[in-house]
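Lab meeting, action items carried over

1. Structure of the three-component assembly. Owner: GW. Status: complete.
Input record:
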Amino acid sequence: MVELEGLFFQYPDSQFQLNIDELDFARGSKTALIGTSGYGKTTFLNIVAGIITPQKGTVKVGDEIISALGDAERRNFRIRHIGFIFQDFKLIPYLNVMDNILLPYRINSSIRMNDSTWQSALSIAEELGIGNKMKKYPDKLSQGERQRVAICRALLNRPSLILADEPTGNLDPENKQRIMDILFDSVEKFESTLITVTHDHDMLEGFETIIDFKNFQAL
Amino acid sequence: MKQSFYLAIKYLMFYKFRTMVLTLSIGLILFLPLGLERLISESQSQMLARSDATPLLIGAKGSSTDLVINTLYFEKNKIEFIHLGLLDTLNNMDLGYAIPILSAFKARGFPIVGTDLDYFSFRNLSIASGRNLQLVGECVIGSEVAEQLDLSVGEHLVSSPENFIDLAGVYPLKMHIVGVLNPSNSPDDYAVFTDLKTNWIIMGLGHGHQDLQALNDPSLILKKDSAQITASAKVFMYNEINTKNMDDFHFHGRMSDYPISSVLFVPKDVKSGIILRGRFESKELKEQIVVPTVVVENLLQTIFRIKKIFDMVFVLIGIATFIIVFLIVILTLKLRKDELFTMFTIGSSKYKTVEIVGFELIITLFLSSSIALVFYGLTGFYIETFIRNFII
Amino acid sequence: MKNRIWGILMVFVLFSCAEPVEKKKERIDEKLKVITVNYPLYYFAERIGGEWIDLKFVIPTNVDPAFWNPDEESLKQYQAADVIFTNGADYAQWMKNVSLASSRIVNTARSFEKQLIKLNTKTAHSHGPDGEHEHQDRAFTVWLDLKLALKQAESIRFHLSKRIPDQSDGIDQNFEELKKDLLSLDSQWLKGFHKYHNQIIIGSHPVYQYLARAYDLNMESVHFEPDEFPSVSQWSELDDLIKKHGSSIMLWEKQPSPKIEKEMNDRKMKIVVFDPCGNKPPSGDFLSVMQENTEAIVGR
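Predicted assembly:
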């Protein structure tokens, strides 16, 4: 599903470098990236998502070599095939739950909203137990509910690749497990590939592969 | 684009208070210079229209501005009276016709204007309900008087005493409302029109009382013989004229000596107007004659000078507002950096972000402009008040 | 769409052109509306203005116009008139109570204001701070002095000519004919009244002041109505006058009732009917009534 080869990335004006000779993620696999802060895990996710491009190497997601695409093409690819879940949920405060879930459709015209989109959003929200909160705003939701909204947003388009950056970072233990269960269930259901950055070693059970990122960073 | 518009609306509606404050402030800033411009230019148009529609005014020597303001706007000011006899003199000059005006009293805050029927046809005033004046003691009210005092045909309006101290001297007269005029967008809408004689009765120059020959109460008679009856001041003066007591009303002295505030003269043609002005200038007649347009134009010059200062102030306020709004936008964008980056991460382009924020600004400006437009529209209702409180 | 706009514009232009023509037609058809406060002035206006004026007479025939109060309909006629000829001397008392357009009121006695006869008919009274005042009347039957009547007619001629300049020649001609008639009457009265100069004539009402002054008559007045039998005190007042002045002639506005006639005969008083003609006569016109008055004087 995801193939990286000869990857080299360095931020301008920084000594940080990310070097990955070769790394593959099979379709439907669940991988956890661990390592202390500063090892480039989030940078890696951003490269795989096509938000930033490496100075060297290729990044292939599915059949698309996204590292060779232009900005707009990468954006469009990202919005159609990749679901991104952020550590601090990153919900838009002035949009209600429904509008937050539908956000990708409002910010990129390569995917169009229709009647079935609304229905899908409602179904997925109900599946995740927030179907009755569609009109509420983020400030009126609990942490767990907010993360579920973020997951709905990421999964609405049935992405083939799910990138989660510390999805349980701000949650209490009960909600952590619930979220991980939801993620794993969704991956199974949509046959998506899951790559998760996490510091939470308690949540590693369930991942097929665990990669320690200290191996990829060169100072 | 539809989606960006949607997100922009959502943002503005969520932060209602912020949106309201911003739109109101910008709206006010947009409105202020436009509103003042409208007030002044429409006041100018109205005042000039009013003065252009009044060919010549004649009154006692003194301030021509006071004369014009009293006759055109019925504002009470210190002008001296002239005599009714002048009307006859002017009408017999064969240069046009004269309309008497007497504006010295008020009824519940509205000026009582004594005149004759020529005034209504001259000013093209038509009756909306009821009829025009026929008898002494009647009044016809302007549309604004009817609306603000909630009066209609068949009701009454009492003239206000000059002042509380004067209660013993001038009796308030209860006037019968026989007609309401159609709106004319002029000071006539705010006036209570009566016959001249009704005004003189309010002034005490005419009155009605019980027949002194037939009084039942002996305490009302101070002295009586075959040639003369002296009654006390206690004798009842009628404060209302009706068909029963109309014949008891009488005037003292010669009517040609009775006071009027001014005469509105309508010359037959331009030449006649010039001839008449010549007669006043040659001191053949001792009063003054003025061309209202000239007086009003002089009055408006002062207003325009003040307006120029206001315009400069508004420009400065506008610049300051623009800077503040610009600062607010920049700071808001900084605060929203996270939110905008989230959208970018999910799949939004930078252009999309600009589009969303752009729509927020456009909608805010649109709302502000709408507010400014509404205020601008409402300004029209206050032209008359502006003229009365700030110009005259 | 374009065609529709052109169509609307064309219709608009056509209507705009039509309007002034209609208005002009209206002006030609509309005569000067004239009204008067008594019959003599009506007669003069009719003789002088003729077919060129729309003259109205709204006073009922059974009233004295000097003491008449118009109803709403009659008042509307006065208000609608282009010119109102008044008699002067505060003749129409009702005018002090009504609203009219000053510019349309023409006082036909303006040129001889100083010649009006003052009367002291009301008791002086005073009240409040203004002090004593009386309401002084002036005699108002000015037309019985035919030279003053001529001045009234002249005033009517002047104002009609001014307002209908196109017809001023016709107006002047009409006036000249009326003038001839009035002057002829005047000369007949001068001759006719001559024989009464040494007598005191009694008038049934104080309405002959101008007649007396113009034709050099000595007159006293009582207040007798032709169809109302006087009271004892009224007869007594008449008897005193007859005794004091040795009068033998009484002028009446109308033929008195037979009962009064008998009383007059008993007192050897000759009845001379001299109708001031303040209102429209049941038959004839002002001139014919004055002719009858002439015959009444000359015949005696």
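2. GW to write a short summary for the group page. Key points so far: The first helix of chain A runs from residue 41 to 49. Residues 85 and 151 of chain A are 6 Å apart (CA to CA).
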